[in-house]
From TrEMBL:
This is Uncharacterized protein YjbJ (UPF0337 family). It holds the Pfam family CsbD. Belongs to the UPF0337 (CsbD) family. It comes from Nocardiopsis metallicus. Residues 1-62 are annotated as: Disordered. Residues 5-46 form the CsbD-like domain.
Length: 74
């Protein structure tokens, strides 16, 4: 399931638990929301890591080209 669905389902479960006085369901809903938040954070971290990897590859490629240019001039 998607992180947005997990968050919404968790909120619903938490609300249901509060209304019915079922603390277990309430806490289960909070746990579902926390899980959705963790998925979101992991997705953001993965995206940032991929972005940094691409930047590093570009930097190495650029540095390699500059080194080649230096040796061509000699």
């Amino acid at each position: 399931m998607g992180k947005h669905f997990d968050d919404a389902a968790g909120k619903g479960k938490e609300a249901f638990g509060k209304v019915t006085g079922d603390r277990g369901t309430e806490f289960e809903g909070k746990a579902d929301q926390a899980k959705a938040g963790a998925k979101d954070a992991a997705d953001k971290a993965k995206g940032k890591a991929e972005e940094l990897k691409d930047k590093a590859e570009d930097a190495f490629e650029s540095a390699g080209e500059k080194i080649k240019d230096v040796f061509k001039k000699k």
